Amino acid sequence: MQKVALFGATGQIGNAILSALLKSDFHVVQIISPGSEARAKPESTTLSTKVVDLASVSRNDLASILDGTEAVISALNGKALEAQELVQDAAWDAGVKRFYPSEYGMHHIYRRPGDTFGTDGKKLWNMKSQCNEKALLHPSIIRGEMTYTLIGCGDFYNQPREKTWCQWTQSSVESYNLPILGNPDALIHFTHIDDFASFLVQTLLHPELSQNKRLNFVSDTVSFSQIAELLEKYSGKKVVKDIMPLEVVHRVIKDPANVPSELGYGPSSGKSAVPVDFWFLVRAMQGEGRYLHPPGEVSNGLFPAVRVRGIEEYLRKEVFGSS
């Protein structure tokens, strides 16, 4: 599968996927939204660009753009994710053989105290769950006219823009204060974005191994206590673990205004693109020891040649530049 169309190429995950595809000499069509042209990679002999407004484009016009494409990768997020069904419809019309829904994460059931049932907690998680369900049960899939590969992963840990979510990516601060919900020794699955992108590329290079599969890629399994120790070791700076009880998450989910003020975490803080309540929901799942894929559902062994960078190597080499 050498000709690929990528939706969401200017986003954080989409950009990493695009870079990995181009390094492996795929011919890529990056589908970008109007207004994002300045963030798109420049065209080349293996990269072309189509500017498409997914809110208004017709199925026929989108199918024409995808004509001749062998695989479609969706890295759509937020509001744009609602257009993923249209993208798959058009891909079907164009004869695309493989579809990658926008997963790249992990889903959980949130349970309030005293509840006898659970919910997925937030609209963002629910939207992605619904989109994934539609993608995997799409008529083209059921009829065997298109295959799918859905890739989950751990918490992306190398996000320098996330100064609260991934404090350890910041090398210029004087000290670190890691906010932790629940058990600081609970093991968590983490993933390096570039490792993940390389794994996705391997599924295209070996389509027979990834056909109609749910896969999960993990770079490291560590606790926040271990991260704190590593951060202190390689930064040489003081690291404080700000451990909060799990009860805090229920107050924040009920009303984001209840976020502890000492976190300095709010819509005007500039510290995160992640909504406050979603941040607390994920951190609560991690503090409960639930942010792990079962061993039999970790797919790293499918492509053992993919580089796997643990958090220690990342801190030592990429953040603090130690040999």
From TrEMBL:
<feature type="domain" description="NmrA-like">
    <location>
        <begin position="2"/>
        <end position="259"/>
    </location>
</feature>
<dbReference type="InterPro" id="IPR036291">
    <property type="entry name" value="NAD(P)-bd_dom_sf"/>
</dbReference>
<dbReference type="GO" id="GO:0016491">
    <property type="term" value="F:oxidoreductase activity"/>
</dbReference>
<keyword id="KW-0521">NADP</keyword>
<dbReference type="InterPro" id="IPR008030">
    <property type="entry name" value="NmrA-like"/>
</dbReference>
<keyword id="KW-0560">Oxidoreductase</keyword>
<protein>
    <submittedName>
        <fullName>NmrA-like family</fullName>
    </submittedName>
</protein>
<dbReference type="InterPro" id="IPR051609">
    <property type="entry name" value="NmrA/Isoflavone_reductase-like"/>
</dbReference>
<dbReference type="Pfam" id="PF05368">
    <property type="entry name" value="NmrA"/>
</dbReference>
